[in-house]
Amino acid sequence: MGFADAQIAKLMGSNEDAVRAVRKQFGLRPFAKRIDTLAGEFPAPTNYLYTTYNAATDDVAFNEHGTMVLGSGVYRIGSSVEFDWCGVSAIRALRQLGHKTIMVNYNPETVSTDFDECDRLYFDELSYERVRDIYEMETAGGVIVSVGGQLPQNIALRLHQNEVKVLGTSPEKIDAAEDRHRFSQILDSIGVDQPAWKELVSVADAEKFADAVGYPVLIRPSYVLSGAAMNVAYDAEALRSNLELAASVSPEHPVVVTKFIRGARELDIDAVASNGELIKHAVSEHIEDAGVHSGDASLILPPANLSAEVLERVKDIGNKVARAFEISGPFNMQIIMQKNEQTPDHPDLKVIECNLRASRSFPFVSKVMDSNFVEAATRAIVGEGVPKPVDLMKGSDKWPYTAIKVPQFSWTRLAGADPFLGVEMSSTGEVACFGKTPEEAYLVSLLSTNGFRLPAPGKSVYVGIDDLTETRIAQKVAKHFAAAGYPVLTDSEATAQVLADGGVSGVKVIKFDYDNRRTLRDAVFDSNIDLVVNLAKLRPSDKANSNYAMRRMAVDFGIPLVNDQRCAEMLVDALEALPQGTATALYGSQELNIETPVDVKSWQQYLDMRK
């Protein structure tokens, strides 16, 4: 226990490195002690270590000079078990190459903190001070910062500037990719397209830029996890408030305002490069429209709607970015695909983000493609046994299966939070499943999430929309459930008329008193609602909004919620694609098993289908 260097520096009006220098002059350093796993009854010679100043000797000799891998820390929105898989895969790859390994992480829920996974495990914080202490004590051979998510990335440049050997992609290049302004300049210099952008100088300049390119615009702070403080502004008032929030969340780095492109699709490219050369890559397609954070998006691999020409262009972009940033290790990009009216067969591809680290989808693409991307990235990072370049996407349109990854949310644990999908991440996990078709894979994945189920026979479906919802999709979804025998309810006469115009008759309007919690539950259950489909596209500014209240009501009462129009359309397409009579339980007018409507196969069985 005690004060960190950064705390002392703040109290003394100094800086962390100056405090560290004085501390080392006095010979003050933490000692490495073993965690006693046997409560003192017997000797416990484990490699499970921690650092403390409350000691006079170390419990281990520092003669292995291992390679350090920084983990992801606590599980939270934006950082979950996906990064733990990446850390463990990196450790295993290093051990295969004959390296002694040192894992630094402090989450007991992870596999990376199992002391038999690495040669030495430090159960300690992932701060600049502590990582540097461990590095110097161990005289480590180097540090890997690109498999633990955003936390290790944030300290990479400082470690590099203070004589810590950071392996793989240079931290200066990592900093250039994290800095929105520098990143955009580099993309311009290599001829890679991106949405119109401007670095924030003042609120007035931001408003002038937004007026020039047209609202909506996206506010993008630098060095943040899971889109924190990233927001879409549809007017000047929202722009001003969102700029203040972005500046407060990331005050040391610039805020960039970009044109927000509506109605486009988003692509993810997960890739590995060595010395600027692309080794392998995977291209996944989002089901949701662009504007939903990639961590909350449903990913399709192989993509269902991309031509070979688009896949080749995405690969070319990956090659250009890998060369420009001299990447050695993993990286991930998000690309907007927008229809070009002048060249319909040649859509515009615009890069919106690039992280020079492993992403949440690395485990997903590795499993689907039966190729461990982190193992290849680790070999590229240390420059040993680097695999030859291979195009894993070639011929993917002929694969006999599709895999889809869908988000898992924990809205019930976030009292009052709006169950709305936007540019800031909200999901706490994910589920991925295989299927013979995209529709089958999506339905199985969705049913595998906690809290979602198909509506029981005789129950009702509650539908909500706003001015930005595509009328065609709302009508299609309502029409499907009405035809399947479900009464369709809505909360306004205007919505009922929209649905009626699409051929959905008998839509009943029910308005709930959301403020009266005492009567709301009875009113909802008396209406027999067993599915809420809220397709509103505009995030409300306050909790008085009826669409917010509808979504929150579904979460609070344990009613399955579909809160994106593309996902709702995909769900309907999946249900309509199911064969008749696959089981005995009724889904509407069809004889379907509403819990497991398709055959279940193992991962290996699907992979064997490609042979």
| Counted beta strands | 24
Secondary-structure class: alpha/beta
- Radius of gyration computed on alpha carbons: 26 Å
Strand order in the sheet with the most strands = 15-14-11-12-13-16-17
Main sheet makeup: 7 strands, antiparallel
Inertia-based shape: globular
Report on the architecture of this protein.
By secondary structure, the chain is of the alpha/beta class. The protein has 19 helices and 24 strands. Strands 15-14-11-12-13-16-17 form a 7-stranded antiparallel beta sheet. It has a 6-stranded mixed beta sheet with strand order 1-2-5-4-3-6, sandwiched between helices. It has a 5-stranded parallel beta sheet with strand order 20-19-18-21-22, with helices on both faces. It starts with a helix and ends with a helix.
Which descriptors apply to this entry?
single chain, alpha/beta, 19 helices, 19% strand, 7-stranded antiparallel sheet, 24 strands
List the helices and strands and how they pair.
Blueprint: H1 5-12, H2 16-25, E1 31-34, E2 48-52, E3 67-70, H3 81-96, E4 101-105, E5 120-123, H4 128-138, E6 142-144, H5 150-161, H6 171-178, H7 180-189, E7 197-199, H8 203-213, E8 217-220, E9 231-233, H9 236-249, E10 256-259, E11 265-274, E12 277-289, E13 299-301, H10 308-324, E14 329-338, E15 348-355, H11 362-369, H12 373-382, E16 402-408, E17 429-435, H13 438-448, E18 460-464, H14 471-483, E19 488-490, H15 493-501, E20 508-509, H16 517-526, E21 529-534, H17 546-556, E22 561-562, H18 565-577, E23 586-587, E24 590-591, H19 603-608
Parallel strand pairs: 2-5, 3-4, 3-6, 4-5, 18-19, 18-21, 19-20, 21-22
Antiparallel strand pairs: 1-2, 7-10, 8-9, 8-10, 11-12, 11-14, 12-13, 13-16, 14-15, 16-17, 23-24
